[in-house]
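Data card: per-record layout.
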Amino acid sequence: MPFQVLPADPSDIPHIAIIHHEAFEEDPILGRLMCDVARESKYDYDKKFYERVFAQRHLNGSVFDKVVDTETGNLVAFAKWMYPYTLTSEQEAEKAKLDLERSYPEGTNVALYEHFFRTLDTKRNKNIEDGKDYFLHILIVSPNYQRRGLGTMLIQQGLSAADKDNARAYVEASAKGLGLYKKHGWKDIDYIEMDMRPHGGDRIEREELLMREPTTGSMQ
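The structure for this 220-residue chain is written out next.
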């Protein structure tokens, strides 16, 4: 197989931002958050977002993996897992300060953006047990490389660690990704709904919130 899973690092950010945009541009919720933002401004925002993500890894137990096409050397998929972690009081204060330092490019649907992520945060606080559960926060596969097993490669990285720790794993799934997650043992525990009709959509969109119990067997 001409694909290899490797640790991702900040030098990968420009490539991660590109596939992030490609993968989520048509998403019925994420694609609406910045649909009126100029393409270059959106790309700059995504790069800055991932710069923050990498810089704050010490505050959220983040582990970053990428899939590289060994024939071309291109980064074609990316995942951010959040492993169990416990913050010190100093880290709690640092995280709270950084969470307030956020700005959006012109054209962002700020109300929808903040409502969507605030709703997800509320559910995470309800469903994830800090210091015990794993969380697959981001999974991106370039559209040109989908349905080739790359998502599974990145999922298995985190699930192997979770099973070793006898820990649960949490994920938030759009309709498009739901089947892949269920294939790997995740089960529905909750959901969110977003009425996208006031924002250019044509219906109420639903995201499933899933938890996977640890297993001693490998998922294929």
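Known properties of this structure: Strands lie at 3-7, 62-69, 75-82, 134-141, 169-173, 187-195, 204-212. The first strand starts at residue 3 and ends at 7.

See the next section for split statistics.
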